Amino acid sequence: MIMIDTHLHLEMREFDPDREAVVQRAREAGIGLITVGIDLESSARAVELAHEHKIYAAVGVHPHEARRYAADLERALARLEELARAERVVALGEIGLDYYRNYSPREAQLELFRAQLKLAAKLNKPVIVHDRQADDDILAALEGAGVRGVVHSFSSGLEEAEALLGLGFYLGFSGPVTFPKARQRYVIKRVPLARLLLETDAPFLTPLPHRGRRNEPAYLRYIAREVAKLTGLPREKVAEQTTRNAAALFALPPG
Asked: Is omega for the bond preceding 126 within 30 degrees of 0, making it cis?
């Protein structure tokens, strides 16, 4: 049973002790990987890992990092474009807005997000979007941006889900879907399987039964199992369709 973990951060230091073993466990479980950068340095490392392990990468600047690049955004975007044109890079991400932590000013976040959307449109690459308590501004930025993509680790409500589906976006679901009281469990029952992606966001958002420990892509099976349970579909069907979805969005080659 083949599946795609469409969002993890293999380049993060949490995987330094056993990165090779993490990749091998995923491979043995039939799980393909898209490792996702959060700034220029981690994006460059994601590209390196993609080539080293024959996986895929996304490159982008996370909204938390917007403050760092505000003073010389043009240069940062030039470097990001260089990385985005590398072989095995399938998306611009992780990009978006975070009004929960507010580690960077909202104005800087918005400027960076819009600039990266424009770059994605220029390069004809999909986007991987981070949205935390910023639904209205996310939707406003995406409308008319001319991009396709996924809102990863979706945590908003049904109204927001329907708006994103209306824009042609996919919704990514991760470990919280296994948590008994998570809102995602309600939303996922109403999302067409053809617009759903699976992800771990490893090393974060570890699903049950391993919650409280470091997450890793091999745990995608627990997310797939819970999605199958919630939707009433066979797990093989969930794996097959979500893999097809990922291949379509990210233009992944057969196999």
From this structure: no
